[in-house]
Amino acid sequence: MADELAAATEALRLDDSKGEELEEGEIVENPADRPAETKKHPLEHSWTFWFDNPNGKQKQATWGSSLRSVYTFHTVEEFWCLYNNILQPSKLIAGADFHCFKSGIEPKWEDPKCAHGGKWTAQPPRSGGKAVLDTYWLHTLLAMIGEQFDEGDEICGAVVSVRRAQDKIAIWTKTASNEAAQVSIAKQWKDVLDYNDKIGYLVHVSCSNKVC
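^ thats the sequence. predicted structure below, dont judge the formating
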């Protein structure tokens, strides 16, 4: 009997090396019952969401003074958490912009990474309503942060602009003089959007235009 009691007492110990014993009524947690930790899926680059809303007016003392960073995300899970908890572009007031740029790059022409670049701009067809704008924006974001562009290193970020006359989505790039890279980005972007109309490229400095 003494031997059985000793064996039973030993079985109640949590860890012999620490000498910890269970208190009366304490329940031992089965590790198999613990919820598995959610595995994160890191992105190749970190990205920052920005919001600009000059109250629908462009008359500002300093351009970009109403631009605000919202959140920087590093993983697929963080992106969806952010995306699912902010307004869709179709719900924004006229004059507002959403920006999604690589972390460390401000969505301004004056930023050193943008200064020698430009932007491709697409205009969602009005016939599809505002839902097309939301779809184009999401597909652009997924292609961009998912590194689907062969010349992804050339991409600074993307902007969706809600306007009364015509909504627009743009992809900003680093090096306007690298024409081959710009054309590659344009063609792949059009494939992502299933976009059949022409899109134009505006160089930030010279304001010269290209069409693809």
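The mean pLDDT is 82.
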